[in-house]
Amino acid sequence: MTPLAKLLEAALFASARPVPLDELAALDPEASPAALRAALDEVRTHYDSEGHGVELSEIGGGWQVLTRAEYTEAIERAQLASRPQRLSAAALETLAIVAYRQPIGRAEIEDIRGVNVGSIIKSLHERGLIDVVGRAEGLGRPLLYGTTPLFLEHFALRHLEELPRADELAIAMRPRLADAPPPADEADAAP
Amino acid sequence: MNSINPEVAVGLDPGFLPSSTHEAPATDTAFVVELTAFSGPLDLLLALIRDEKVDIYDIPIARIAEQFLARIKSLALNDAADYLEMAARLLRIKAQMLLPRGEGDDWEDPRAELVRRLLEYQQMREIVDVMEKRADERRRQFARAYLPMEAAPPQAPLALSLSELLSAVDRVLRFVREPTMHEVVARPLDVPAAVELIRSLLALKAQLRWTDVVRADAAPWQVLSALLGLLELARVGELKVAQARPFANVEITRDPTSEAA
Question: What is the arithmetic mean of pLDDT over B176-190?
Fold first, then answer.
């Protein structure tokens, strides 16, 4: 590997969180973004082609060295690390709404889910998956929430645009019958 | 969670029930309802529409409302306000459907808003499925020094013996070898002397200023003594005190009436 690739490998090894490209750039002021990308590619190819137990992933707006999935069970059995808890259905539903409609206030989330979401929002906030991103205009100036980099990490997303677009999912939004409401109305209702 | 196929959603699969894998954080009292496998009234409603094999765009509202109420009862969801609110909404729509309507009128389907919300909710559940799949994939990999998502457990109470505590105190005391001491000396005010001073000054001059009475380098006790003496003399009527404006010099005048006396 080139010296730059080795430097990046060492930095990624040292970090527990995905490291964004601009932070990697700080390691070597001489290196251009193109050189960094080439070096990252080199590390990835090195891991992939020479039979390593880890791989390089682009995730949560940065780069991270992760263990390969086939070793998960063995690592867990040996109690060297444990998987994070799965989120509840309620938490996932709330997160999905925040991810697609951010910035969004609590009342709007409750409108879509049809239930009170106060405590769920609190626990998602405590877990660092959502954060307050502003305040809405209008009565009481309610807090507006958005997703965090940790959210991207949790769902193995490089960026938010990697989530399927709402109109790609909207099969159910299309009227099925001839006497159904006109399509225009339904399209308007789509998020 | 079971995946929600849109075709299934319009009522082809009788076997659907939201899975029991829903996990509710133990700390969230608001999610007792979660334990019953429905994440909210819209979820329950969608399940009913599926079970009853009805068309989501043409919901037989009377039948569904009846089923909804029955399910609330059987699931012991009576205390969940969100479910009751939906039950009330269904009954209102049912009533609106019964109103007579003329041919060719601009009739707005009272179910339209409900259908819109159901579809919106269903779409969100599709997104949840995508997100859950991704999260599961990510959970199959470990990062270096993976930090668990759960909050750190509370710290154990301190195990500290008395001898450890005393030796720590000892170390601190030794570190502070010579404590800085301030000697506090009680210095009583001398009001009678100040009174005598003002009297003798006034005997020489009919008019004085505060700065004539108190020297610039006077100690606090001297300033206070002079002030109290001045006030005392003013009280008994030997002099008058005036100040043109705040912080201006204080003018002290011999009281002519007392002089006469």
Answer: 75
A98 CA: distance to closest CA in chain B (Å)? 10
Task: Name residues whose C-beta falls within 8 Å of residue B252's C-beta, 6 or more positions apart in sequence.
Answer: B198, B202, B207, B208, B209, B210, B212, B213, B230, B239, B240, B241
Q: Which helix (H) or strand (E) holds A131?
A: strand A130-135
- In this predicted complex, what is the ipTM? 0.71
User: 10 Å Cβ neighbour count for B71?
Assistant: 19
Residue ranges, chain A, pLDDT below 70 = 166-191
Residue B109 contacts A where some CB pair is shorter than 8 Å: yes
Nearest CB neighbour to A189, from listed B25, B39, B116: B116
Å from A171 to nearest chain B CA?
A: 7
CB A119 within 8 A of CB B31: yes
Mark out the alpha helices in B188-245 (DSSP H runs): 191-204, 210-213, 220-236
Alpha-carbon gap, residue A107 to A109, rounded angstroms: 5
b or e along A28-41 (b: 16 or more beta carbons within 10 Å of the residue's beta carbon)?
Answer: beebeeeebeebbe
Find residues 139-168 of chain A whose CB sits inside 8 Å of chain B: 153-157, 163-164, 166
In chain B, which residue's Cα lies nearest the Cα of A176?
A: B57
Mutate to test the interface with A, among B131, B133, B134, B136 (most CBs of A within 10 A): B131
**Token pair for residue B197?**
């001073």
Pairwise CB contact (< 8 Å): B123 & A89: no
More confident residue, B27 or B204: B204
Per-residue pLDDT of B62-77, as tens digits, reads 888 888 888 877 766 6
Q: What does residue B244 show for φ and ψ, rounded to 5 degrees?
A: -65, -40
pLDDT, mean of residues B32-39: 57
Provide the pLDDT confidence category of residue B171 given band limits of 50, 70 and 90.
confident
What DSSP state is assigned to residue A54? E
E strand residue ranges, chain B: 207-209, 239-243, 250-254
Q: What is the pLDDT of residue B5?
A: 41
Please state whether A100 falls in left (phi above 0), alpha (psi between -120 and 50) or beta: alpha
Q: Do B39 and A68 touch (CB under 8 A)?
A: no
